[in-house]
Amino acid sequence: MKVGIYGAGAMGTILGAYITKAGYEIDLINRNEEHVKALNEIGAQIIGKIEFVQTVKAITPNEIKDKYDIILLMTKQKHNKEIVESLIPFLKEKSLICTMQNGLPEKSVADVIGKDKTCGCTMSWGATFHGKGISELTSEPNRETLTFSIGKYGNNDDLLFNYIVELLNSMGEVTIENNFTGARWAKLMINAAFSGLSVITDANFGEIAKNKESRLFALKIIKECIEVTKAGGIKVEPLQGKDIIKLLDYNNKFKRYISLMLIPLAMKKHRLIKSSMLRDLKEGRKTEIEAINGMVCEHGDLFNVDTPLNDKIVSIVHLIEDNKLKSSWSNLELLK
Ligand SMILES: NC(=O)c1ccc[n+]([C@@H]2O[C@H](COP(=O)([O-])OP(=O)(O)OC[C@H]3O[C@@H](n4cnc5c(N)ncnc54)[C@H](OP(=O)(O)O)[C@@H]3O)[C@@H](O)[C@H]2O)c1
Q1: Between the chain's N and C termini, which has fewer beta carbons within 10 Å?
Q2: Are 193 and 203 in contact (CB under 8 A)?
Q3: Domain total of the chain
């Protein structure tokens, strides 16, 4: 079976290291030549919550020769159309591209290669890229925290789909979701709240959960997302065994108080995660914000639900992208 991780950066370097460590062959593909060189010469250097160095095979996109059975897509999703188009010559008749990106990315992949070649997977753990073969795991290194939820988008080849499940299982628990849209929305809510607030404040998820003001904004952002899913008839699936709707869909002050108390506990294992959009900003690039909070706003418009906080997060991030603002705690004032 020929498998590659396309865009092995923060997350892909770690996933590739675990999969290789478990004895599978997988190519780590990245356009960053320095990173590819270090991966081949030194190995994948995993730091942070766990430390190990794993010999891996890495190549640049120009070095791809063979056709792949499976590609795990782990670039940011802004350039999905061009990237997936460039991968078409390296796909077989039944190959699968599994998009591991945040947001609701399956459609953009399927628009290029068709639904039957597309599947999706959420990753409920975090990582920070340090370049030159080094990636930092920012979630607790146990199977219950390093989880994946995977789902078919079309009539996928069963053998290949099950092989992806087997590969991911080398790192953490994998849930196969029949209602994958519901699993996507569960993850999107958390990203809209915590990645959204992380990118405007430059804080990590733990700091956002701890501070009373940002925690309340996080809860209100999630509440907007919940209202969108209700209006759209989307049944939200549990995330890492936690039913977000049951825990956080408040309708009175007492329930809101309880929901607020639960947030720091729920975020404990992921408190060191910072949004990977902060690295994009540091490098002067546009972020994935339209694919995260922007996606919530788009669906709010579609289902006639107001999403004022998600709208503001998107606007603030665009101001930061345009160098008119800096990521800073004081940006919370702009959400009021
Ligand atoms: N980081 C997290 O904690 C986290 C958690 C859950 C989900 N996610 C999601 O996972 C996805 C990947 O995130 P990440 O943090 O791993 O991103 P990342 O560190 O930026 O990794 C993506 C890598 O792909 C490379 N790349 C970009 N375009 C390419 C191309 N055309 N050909 C080959 N390589 C290319 C990038 O190189 P350059 O540096 O040159 O751009 C980068 O090294 C995103 O959708 C993100 O939302 C991230």
Answers
A1: C
A2: no
A3: 2
Tokens (6 digits) for 58: 């890495």
Q: How far, in Å, is the centroid of ligand 1 from the Cα of 283?
A: 13
Which CATH number fits the domain that encloses residue 294? Answer: 1.10.1040.10
**And the tokens for 121?**
């997977």
The Cβ of residue 261 has, within 10 Å, a number of other Cβ atoms equal to 10
Asked if residue 329 and residue 209 are part of one domain, the reply reads yes
The stretch 3-8 carries a mean pLDDT of 98
In the three-class reduction of DSSP (H, G, I as helix; E, B as strand; rest coil), residue 267 is classed as coil
| Residue numbers of the domain that contains 173 | 3-178
Contact 214, 332 (CB under 8 A): yes
- The residue from 126, 149, 178 where one domain ends is 178
9 touches ligand 1 (CB under 6 Å): yes
pLDDT tier at 315 (50, 70, 90 boundaries)? very high
Do 56 and 174 lie in one domain? The reply is yes
pLDDT for 57-116, tens place per residue?
999 999 999 999 999 999 999 999 999 999 999 999 999 999 999 999 999 999 999 999
Size of the chain, expressed as the number of residues it contains: 336
CA angle 73, 121, 139 (to 5 degrees): 95
pLDDT tens digits for 323-333? Answer: 999 999 999 99
What is the best residue among 15, 75, 84, 112 to mutate for testing ligand 1's pocket, by most ligand atoms within 8 Å of CB? 75
Which of 125, 145, 178 is at the close of a domain? Answer: 178
Q: Is the beta carbon of 123 within 6 A of some atom in ligand 1?
A: yes
Percent of the chain that is helix, strand, coil (3-state, to 5): 50, 15, 30
Distance 13 CA to ligand 1 centre (A): 10
Count other C-beta atoms under 10 Å from residue 173's C-beta. Answer: 17
Atom of ligand 1 nearest to the CA of 86: 31
Q: Where residue 100 sits, what CATH number does that domain have?
A: 3.40.50.720
Q: Which residue has the tokens 């309880």?
A: 258
Say yes or no: 14 and 58 in one domain: yes
pLDDT, tens only, 166-218: 999 999 999 999 999 999 999 999 999 999 999 999 999 999 999 999 999 99
